[in-house]
C-alpha cells in the first residue's frame, strides 16, 4: 500500500473535516488561525505516514470473546507521543480528570451498542481492546482513529472544546474501525462519503442508545457540545437537516447537502467525503423517523447487515449501498413496512434504490 491509497485502513480518519480547519486557518485573528494551522499540519503528517494495519482472519473463536470491553486510556500530556502514559485501565476507579473518564465511558458506550444491538464483540468482532489517548498536542482541534486507537485533542477553547465531550464523536471514530474490519470502504468519492456516513450513523446510535432515546427524541446532531460559545452553530453536522449545523462568520456555513441534486463535486477532502455524507445520513434519518421507536433496532440493523454482510464492495457508490439496504430489509423483515420505508427514504434524497 502506498501513501496515496485512499482507504480508511490505515488512512487517518478525523471528526473535523479539512474544509472546516482550512477556513479557520485563513482567519485574521492568530488566536483562531494558529491552532487550526498546527492541527492541519499534524493531520497532514498522520495522513501521509505509511503504516501497516493487518486485518487478521480470526476464524472461529477458540474461546468466546468477553461480553465486556477491554479499555485503556492514556494521557499524551500535551505531547504528540502515542500512546502516552496509562491513566485508566478496565475496571479501574474513575480518574480525577473528567476527560479521561469521558473517553473511558465513551469507549464502553460504543462497545455496548455493538454488542447488545448487533451481537458484535468490539470493533473487530473478536474482542479487540479499545485504546484511547487524551490531551494530545497543544490546542489540537480534532479527534481521530488511526487504524489502531482513538486520539483526542483538547481543542483551542475558542472554536472547539474538549473532543471527549460528545459521545457520538467517540462512537463515530470507533465505527471507522468497524468499517475497517468489514466492508473497508475506500476513503474517496461516494464510497468515502458512505464510510463517513456509517460513522455518523452509528456514532449517533451510540449516543441514542446510551441515553435511551427514541428516533423522535434524538437530536440527530454529530458533535453537539463540541463548538465553543462564540461559534454560531450547534454541531459539526445534522443528519436531520444537513446544511444547518453551523452558519458562522469564521467557520462559514455548513456545506452538507441532503439530496443528490446538490451533490458537491470537489477534489478536496478526498472528493468531499465529509460533505456528501449528508445524503446517506439524511436517508438514514428519514428511515429511522418513519419506522419510529429506537433507531438502533430496525433501521440500524438494516445498515449493520449491509456493512457486515460481505456484499458491499469497497468502491461502492450510493446507489449500490441503497439497493443492498432494500434487499437487507426484505431479507430480515420481509417485503413489508421496513422495505417500503427504506425505498422511500432513498427516493426522498434522490438515490435510486430499485
Short description:
The chain is of the alpha+beta class and 354 residues long. It has helices at 18-25, 30-48, 98-118, 167-180, 189-211, 269-272, 278-291, 298-308, 318-333, 337-348; strands at 13-14, 71-75, 85-89, 130-134, 143-145, 150-152, 221-222, 237-238, 247-248, 252-253. A six-stranded mixed sheet has the order 1-5-6-4-2-3, covered by helices on one side. The chain has a two-stranded antiparallel ribbon with strand order 7-8. A two-stranded antiparallel ribbon has the order 9-10.
The fraction of residues in strands falls at: 5-15%
Structural class: alpha+beta
**Number of helical stretches of at least 4 residues:** 10
Instruction: Determine Rg (CA atoms, Å).
Output: 19 Å
Helix proportion range: 40-55%
Distance between the termini: 35 Å
Q: Give the overall pLDDT as a whole number.
A: 91
Per DSSP E runs of 2 or more residues, the count of β-strands stands at 10
**Helix and strand string, N-terminal first?**
EHHEEHEEEHHEEEEHHHHH
Supply the number of structural domains.
2
Oligomer: single chain
General form:
globular
What's the CATH H-level superfamily name of the largest domain? Neutral Protease Domain 2
CATH topology of the largest domain: Neutral Protease, domain 2
Strand order of the largest sheet: 1-5-6-4-2-3
The CATH architecture classification of the largest domain is: Orthogonal Bundle
Q: Main sheet?
A: 6 strands, mixed
Low-confidence stretches: 1-10, 50-62
Amino acid at each position: 500500500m502506498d501513501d496515496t491509497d485512499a482507504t480508511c485502513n490505515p488512512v487517518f480518519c478525523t471528526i473535523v473535516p479539512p474544509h472546516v480547519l482550512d477556513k479557520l486557518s485563513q482567519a485574521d485573528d492568530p488566536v483562531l488561525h494558529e491552532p487550526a494551522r498546527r492541527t492541519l499540519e499534524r493531520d497532514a503528517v498522520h495522513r501521509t505516514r505509511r503504516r501497516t494495519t493487518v486485518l487478521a482472519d480470526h476464524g472461529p473463536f477458540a474461546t468466546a470473546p468477553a461480553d465486556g470491553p477491554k479499555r485503556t486510556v492514556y494521557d499524551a500530556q500535551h505531547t504528540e507521543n502515542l500512546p502516552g502514559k496509562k491513566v485508566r485501565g478496565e475496571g479501574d476507579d474513575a480518574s480525577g480528570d473528567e476527560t479521561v473518564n469521558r473517553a473511558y465511558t465513551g469507549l464502553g458506550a460504543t462497545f455496548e451498542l455493538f454488542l447488545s444491538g448487533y451481537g458484535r464483540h468490539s470493533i473487530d468482532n473478536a474482542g479487540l481492546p479499545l485504546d484511547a489517548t487524551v490531551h494530545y498536542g497543544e490546542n489540537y482541534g480534532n479527534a481521530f482513529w488511526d487504524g489502531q486507537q482513538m486520539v483526542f485533542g483538547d481543542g483551542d477553547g475558542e472554536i472547539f472544546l474538549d473532543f471527549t465531550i460528545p459521545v457520538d464523536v467517540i462512537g463515530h471514530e470507533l465505527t471507522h474501525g468497524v468499517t475497517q474490519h468489514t466492508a473497508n470502504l475506500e476513503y474517496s468519492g461516494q464510497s468515502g462519503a458512505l464510510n463517513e456516513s456509517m460513522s455518523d450513523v452509528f456514532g449517533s446510535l451510540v449516543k441514542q442508545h446510551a441515553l435511551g432515546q427514541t428516533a423522535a427524541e434524538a437530536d440527530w446532531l454529530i458533535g453537539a457540545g463540541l463548538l465553543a460559545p462564540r461559534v454560531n452553530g450547534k454541531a459539526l453536522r445534522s443528519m436531520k437537516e444537513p446544511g444547518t449545523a453551523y452558519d458562522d462568520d469564521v467557520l462559514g456555513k455548513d456545506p452538507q447537502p441532503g439530496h443528490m441534486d446538490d451533490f458537491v463535486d470537489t477534489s478536496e477532502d478526498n472528493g468531499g467525503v465529509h460533505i456528501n455524507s449528508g445524503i446517506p445520513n439524511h436517508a438514514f434519518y428519514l428511515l429511522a423517523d418513519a419506522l419510529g421507536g429506537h433507531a438502533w433496532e430496525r433501521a440500524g440493523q438494516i445498515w449493520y447487515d449491509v456493512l457486515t454482510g460481505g456484499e458491499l464492495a469497497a468502491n461502492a457508490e450510493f446507489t449500490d449501498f441503497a439497493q443492498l439496504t432494500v434487499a437487507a430489509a426484505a431479507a430480515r423483515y420481509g417485503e413489508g413496512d421496513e422495505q417500503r420505508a427504506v425505498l422511500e427514504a432513498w427516493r426522498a434524497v434522490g438515490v435510486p434504490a430499485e
